[in-house]
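Record type: monomer structure entry
Structure origin: computed from sequence
Chain ID: A
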Amino acid sequence: MKAVFAFLIAVAAGCSDQQNDNPEKVHRSHAQASLENLVDSFKTEYNAASSQTGKEEITSRFRKKIDNFLSTHYLNHMRVHVDSVVTDRLTIFTRFHTKDNLIFRSSMEFRKPMPPKEADLYRFMQGLKTNKDTSIDFGYAGKYELNSPGEASQPALIIWAFPQSYQVHGHR
């Protein structure tokens, strides 16, 4: 019995220590995988539509799906790439992305004096390094933008969300 228990611990430890340098094979949270699948399905259906009316119907249907998803799911453990962190006095603007068609943006204004938790969040956001990958929990800010997949200047989905946790998992 002890041998089975030791074996299970060894297997669990081996699995938890594995790092994968291939970004396509990195574990994604349920929320992230679901959002990425929604965006991919939207792009596929939109591009397959032959009329403007069909594209509008598809956009309307996906707006409802995205509204429903964002209002009923937490955006926890989102594996993101830090695109920018801009500090203007006590306001921090951030931009993150997963894949090319899903972006998270935030703008948070902090006030002095800051309670300890707010000060921790401020330091965390200031410490984010651009061009690095990390895992962050986001709080949906109630706004998103669904763009036509053909627009080269805009990603298909932009979600306004603010970081909620301070756990940077140090992935490269």
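Annotation 1: The longest helix spans residues 52-72.
Annotation 2: The two ends are 39 Å apart (CA to CA).
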